[in-house]
């Protein structure tokens, strides 16, 4: 009997102990859940009210660091630039600035060139970093990408320098030649020679000013305000007439083909200037007794048919490194040849802007010593497309009209009817 009582008492004591232990464990677990973890310390909750919202709308890359240099908050742009890696600020100069600002509370700013991630060409990423204290424990880092701004500034600086140089050359030549004419007033032969040189320099100056005006116009105007269907054969004929004298001087044959019954939609003046610039470049950069071809064709594209105009020459060609820059303003592959021909380096820049503003594009294929092919692709005029479809439907219903149309399509071209040149790939 005493044994049974002892066993019952022991079981009761064990049950009480088990309940106490379970209660203590539950209390401990509950307290641990409420305790802030190391991870929770680095969440948005530690940011002052409203800071998270402000950072989300900033264009700059934003990074917030705590007293241990751990990243509390970082924008997606900061990760894209490679500023934050593995929860740490990966740029040592910025990290050093943050530590100094945390120590003395001073706002600091610096411009840095950082290696660009993912490129093997060593390109630098220009950034401006500004560090400021955020409360008593945090530091805010704002990083602005200046790469594009620096590129635009470099283009503007080069443009101003090149314009100044290009204007100074003919103006200075005209000044010297006018003095020479005055000094040679008693020598009719010298006066005639100097006057001829003055005409050349005046023409170069006029062309430069006109191309600057054309470039400004195509950059600022909307060509589709005065858009109309433009016949391709008329554009080609105008481009050939524009360069006929230069081509004749160098005994260069100009051939055109495939331009009949093709229409593009756009500003006639700008389109004529763009195609004329391509043909003029082909003539200027071609050796004597060679051939320049202008070929046109219709190609099918997802957004609608395009008219493709290809200008092919047998000139000096363009190197791979120059292909990336030939459409920049005032960039010339051969400056010495450009000075000899009066080129300004603006022609291809105008072509690029005209093509883009008309919803098209311009591309180039070239190999050194094998010539070049510049291809201008423009949307076909919708009215011309509709008329062609109507004529095709009517011709299918009336075969006689189809035969008559075929006779008209084989009529000779108003300019030299040479076969279409081969368009290089």
What do these coordinates show?
With 425 residues, this protein is α+β, with helices and mostly antiparallel strands. The chain has 3 domains: 42-145, PAS domain (Beta-Lactamase, 2-Layer Sandwich), CATH 3.30.450.20; 147-220, Signal transduction histidine kinase, dimerisation/phosphotransfer (DHp) domain (Helix Hairpins), CATH 1.10.287; 223-409, Heat Shock Protein 90. It has 13 helices and 14 strands. The strands form 4 sheets. It has a 5-stranded antiparallel sheet, sandwiched between helices. Strands 9-11-12-14-13 form a 5-stranded mixed sheet, with helices on one face. The chain has a two-stranded antiparallel sheet with strand order 3-4. It is elongated and about 145 Å long. Mean pLDDT is 77; it is low at 34-45 and 401-425. Keywords: ATP-binding, Kinase, Membrane, Nucleotide-binding, Phosphoprotein, Transferase, Transmembrane, Transmembrane helix, Two-component regulatory system. It is found in: Cell membrane. The chain crosses the membrane at residues 6-26.
């Amino acid at each position: 009997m005493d044994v049974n009582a002892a066993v019952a008492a022991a079981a009761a004591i064990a049950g009480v102990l088990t309940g106490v232990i379970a209660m203590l464990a539950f209390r401990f677990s509950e307290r641990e859940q409420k305790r802030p973890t190391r991870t929770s310390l680095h969440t948005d909750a530690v940011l002052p009210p409203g800071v998270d919202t402000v950072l989300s709308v900033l264009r700059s890359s934003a990074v917030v660091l705590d007293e241990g240099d751990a990243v509390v908050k970082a924008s997606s742009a900061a990760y894209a630039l490679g500023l934050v890696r593995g929860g740490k600020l990966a740029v040592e100069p910025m990290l050093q600035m943050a530590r100094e600002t945390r120590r003395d509370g001073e706002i600091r700013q610096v411009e840095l060139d950082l290696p660009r991630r993912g490129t093997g060409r060593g390109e630098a990423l220009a950034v401006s970093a500004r560090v400021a204290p955020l409360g008593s424990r945090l530091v805010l880092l704002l990083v602005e990408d200046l790469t594009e701004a620096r590129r635009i500034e470099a283009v503007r600086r080069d443009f101003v320098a090149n314009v100044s140089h290009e204007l100074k050359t003919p103006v200075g030549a005209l000044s010297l030649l006018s003095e020479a004419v005055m000094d040679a007033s008693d020598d009719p032969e010298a006066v005639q020679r100097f006057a001829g040189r003055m005409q050349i320099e005046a023409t170069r100056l006029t062309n430069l000013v006109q191309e600057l005006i054309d470039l400004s116009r195509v950059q600022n105007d909307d060509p589709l305000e005065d858009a109309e269907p433009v016949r391709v054969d008329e554009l080609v004929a105008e481009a050939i007439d524009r360069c006929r004298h230069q081509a004749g001087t160098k005994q260069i044959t100009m051939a055109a083909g495939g331009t009949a019954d093709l229409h593009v939609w756009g500003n006639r003046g700008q389109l004529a200037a763009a195609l004329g610039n391509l043909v003029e470049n082909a003539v200027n950069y071609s050796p004597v007794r060679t051939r320049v071809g202008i070929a046109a064709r219709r190609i099918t594209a997802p957004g609608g048919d395009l008219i493709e105009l290809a200008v092919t020459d047998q000139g000096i060609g363009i190197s791979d490194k120059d292909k990336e820059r030939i459409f920049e303003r005032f960039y010339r592959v051969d400056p010495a040849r450009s000075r000899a021909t009066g080129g300004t380096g603006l022609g291809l820049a105008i072509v690029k802007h005209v093509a883009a503003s008309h919803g098209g594009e311009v591309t180039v294929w070239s190999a050194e010593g094998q010539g070049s092919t510049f291809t201008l692709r423009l949307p076909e005029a919708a009215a011309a497309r509709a008329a062609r479809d109507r004529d095709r439907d009517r011709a299918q219903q009336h075969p006689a009209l189809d035969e008559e149309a075929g006779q008209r399509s084989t009529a000779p071209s108003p300019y030299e009817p040479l076969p279409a040149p081969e368009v290089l790939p």
